[in-house]
TrEMBL record:
GO molecular function: magnesium ion binding; racemase and epimerase activity
Organism of derivation: Tsukamurella asaccharolytica
UniProt family annotation: Belongs to the mandelate racemase/muconate lactonizing enzyme family.
Signal peptide: none
Keywords, in A-Z order: Isomerase, Magnesium, Menaquinone biosynthesis, Metal-binding
Cofactor entry: Mg(2+)
CDD domains, alphabetized: MLE_like (cd03315)
SMART domains assigned: MR_MLE
PANTHER family: O-SUCCINYLBENZOATE SYNTHASE, O-SUCCINYLBENZOATE SYNTHASE-RELATED
Residues in Mandelate racemase/muconate lactonizing enzyme C-terminal domain copies: 140-238
Annotated protein name in UniProt: Enolase
GO annotation, biological process: menaquinone biosynthetic process; peptide metabolic process
Amino acid sequence: MQITAIEAIPYRIPYVKPLKFASGQVTHADHVLVRVQTAGGLVGYADAPPRPFTYGETQAGIVAVIDGVFAPALVGLDAGEREIAKQRMHRTVGNPAAKSAIDMAVWDVLGQAWGVSVSRALGGFTDRMRVCHMLGFDEPAAMAREAREITDRYGISTFKVKVGRRPVELDVEVVRALRKTLGDKAELYMDGNRGWTASEAQYALDLLSDTGLTLAEELCPADDVLGRRRLVANCRMPFVGDESVTTPAEVTRELLGGSATAISIKTARSGFTSSQEILHLATGLGVEVVMGNQIDGQLGTACTLAFGAAHEATSARAGELSNFLDMADDLLTEPLRIVDGELAVPAGTGLGVSVDPDKLAHYRLA
Ligand code: MUC
Ligand code: MG
C-alpha cells in the first residue's frame, strides 16, 4: 500500500462565535485538510489547525512544509512504514500540526486497509467519551449563560474556563458565576494560556480555593521556571501542562522539573503516534492526562475522540470535544452529534468519517 500523494488543502470556515483566550483569538477556522492517497485507492484524511499565537505555524506555512518537505520525504513509502515516516518528519523540530495531520491521515488509511476503526487499532478501550466544553473570554454573566445553554442542549456538565486576564478578579468572578449557575455537580477547571505571572496565578488559586475547581492548566509560562515550580508545588489540584508539553521530551522535562503534574494530550499537535508515546510516558510515571482541544473542527475532534476512547487513561476524564459547535459549518458528510454529554466513536473503518466534496469545494482556498 504505497503512499502516492500527500496533499495539503487550505480552507476557511467562519466561526459563529469567536473564541478568545489569554494568548489569542480565533474568528475563522483557517485550517489545512491533509489528504493521503495510496496505490490501492484508499484515501485518508486529517486536519491541521495552525495556532500561530502558540506554536508559530500558519496556514501558508503548513501548506509549504507539507508540499516542500514532508510530502517529498514520504511519498513512495508503504503506509505501514510509520516509524520511518516518523523518523523523516521528526528531523524537523517544529511544525507539529503539519506532522500530526500526516501521521493521522496515514492511520486513517491503515485502519481502512485492516478493516478496523483507528480507535480499535490504537487500543479499543471504549466506544465513547464524555465531552467537556471550553468557554472563551466574555463577561461573567455571558459565560454563565453560554454554559447553561450548552448543558441544556447537549447534556454537557464539564467546562474548561479560559482565565488569565487582568484584573485577576474578573476571572474569579467568572468562575463564581459559573458555579452559581451550574451548581455543585458540574465539573469546572481553568486554563490560563500563560496569561498570568506565577504570583498572579497563586493569588487566583487562593481566591478560588472554595469553588471546587478540578484542574489548573498552564496558568503562567513554564519558562518562568522557579516561579512556576513554586506555584505547582503549592497547587492542590493537578496542574496541567499544555503548550509547554508538546513532545515526549518536553513532557519528561516539565514533569521531572516539577512544572506540571498532569498532561494535556492534543492529537492535533502529536498525532496518534507521538500521542501514544506521551500517554505511555505519563501513565508509566503515574500522571493523569486530559484529551485537549486545539480549537478543532469536526475532523480534528474525530481524531481526539478516536484516540481518547482507545485508552483507559485518556477516557477517564471528559475530553475537550465540542468547540466545533462554535463554527458556522464543517467539512464532514455526517456531522458529529453530542448526545447526553457524550460523543460516540463513528462506526466504520479508519476514522469512520468522510469529507463532503461539495463542502470542501465551497470552503477551500485557491
Ligand atoms: C487550549 O487548551 O489552550 C487555545 C490555544 C491553543 O493552542 O489551544 C487552545 C486551547
Ligand atoms: Mg490549554
